[in-house]
Design goal:
The chain is α+β, with helices and mostly antiparallel strands. The protein is 41% helix and 12% strand.
């Protein structure tokens, strides 16, 4: 079916993000010449050539509260000495440029290896044991907060949009039935191993605080559990390292199936925001939406 062009995300493309990045750098007094697009996902990330800084451009003004949360979380974790990404302290944060929140981060110089699943488990265990200061308020985890924006704006066929809204309503009902047995605490909210970087000193560093919240730790454990049990993205040994380091396997929890469906739904709507960027992304979106229509079908998804 035809795509309804009036519903598209009005051009949050790599080109638009680059224009916003350049304008933000001018306001911040930074040289944007030679800046490189590192990633286009929920945000656009640019690495500056002139200084060791990453510029993060969000999709629209409605993401401004999340950008403020990111800045606050970075300052808190820095004060606690937690190994996490740091904002550039001497710049106004966040900026709002052409309707897009923009933040500036210290570049993490990568080492010669990737983070392990054991390191992810240890990092989450330490994070979940921390106590937030009384004056630091964080939202609860909301797996639905960005879904309507994604569904209404993405360049997808209208029959996909109808299906996704129906599935969204079903998932909301299942979400309401979840019974947690753990206490609430600081939660990263998007805790996959790609959100750990290893610096030049071979230290794992936590990044990307957009979904940071105060809620049950299961929301962080579900990401790796689903990637392993549903998608097969880790070996049995890698997943065992994660479970051993954290001390719990979410797969044994009765609420796992609901979290699996929520995670797969979010992974699909995240990807579909960029179907106009290249054919590989469009093909992977088609693979994921096809699988969502059959809950028992194998998930032969590919990491993006």
């Amino acid at each position: 079916m035809a795509v309804n062009a009036a519903r598209l995300d009005e051009g949050f493309t790599s080109a638009r993000a680059a224009r916003v990045m350049r304008a933000a750098c001018r306001r911040a007094g930074l040289d944007d010449r030679g800046a490189e697009l590192v990633r286009l996902g929920e945000n656009a990330l640019f690495r500056l050539a002139s200084v060791p800084v990453i510029v993060r451009v969000a999709r629209g003004e409605e993401y401004l509260p999340k950008a403020r949360t990111e800045v606050g979380v970075s300052r808190w974790l820095s004060g606690e000495g937690f190994p996490a990404a740091r904002i550039v302290d001497d710049l106004e944060q966040p900026l709002l440029v052409e309707g897009h929140p923009v933040t500036f981060w210290r570049l993490i110089v990568e080492g010669n290896r990737k983070a392990t699943y054991g390191e992810l488990g240890s990092m989450l265990r330490d994070l979940h044991s921390m106590t937030l200061p009384a004056e630091f308020e964080l939202p609860s985890f909301d797996p639905f907060d960005k879904q309507e924006l994604r569904i209404s704006r993405a360049a997808i066929p209208d029959d996909d949009r109808v299906f996704l809204r129906k599935r969204w309503r079903e998932l909301r009902d299942q979400f309401e039935e979840l019974k947690f047995e753990t206490s609430k605490g600081p939660v990263h909210g998007d805790a996959h191993v790609q959100n750990l970087m290893v610096n030049e000193r071979s230290e794992a560093v936590l990044i990307d605080f957009e979904a940071f919240c105060f809620d049950h730790p299961e929301w962080d454990l579900m990401v790796t559990a689903v990637e392993h049990h549903s998608l097969g993205w880790q070996t049995d040994e890698q997943y065992a390292d994660f479970v051993r380091a954290y001390g719990r396997d979410l797969y044994d929890w009765p609420g796992y199936e609901t979290l699996r469906r929520l995670q797969e739904f979010g992974m699909t709507t995240w990807l579909m925001q960029n179907v106009q960027e290249d054919q590989e992304t469009a093909d992977e979106y088609r693979r994921r939406i096809t699988a969502l229509r059959n809950d028992d079908a194998p998930r032969d998804w590919r990491p993006r």
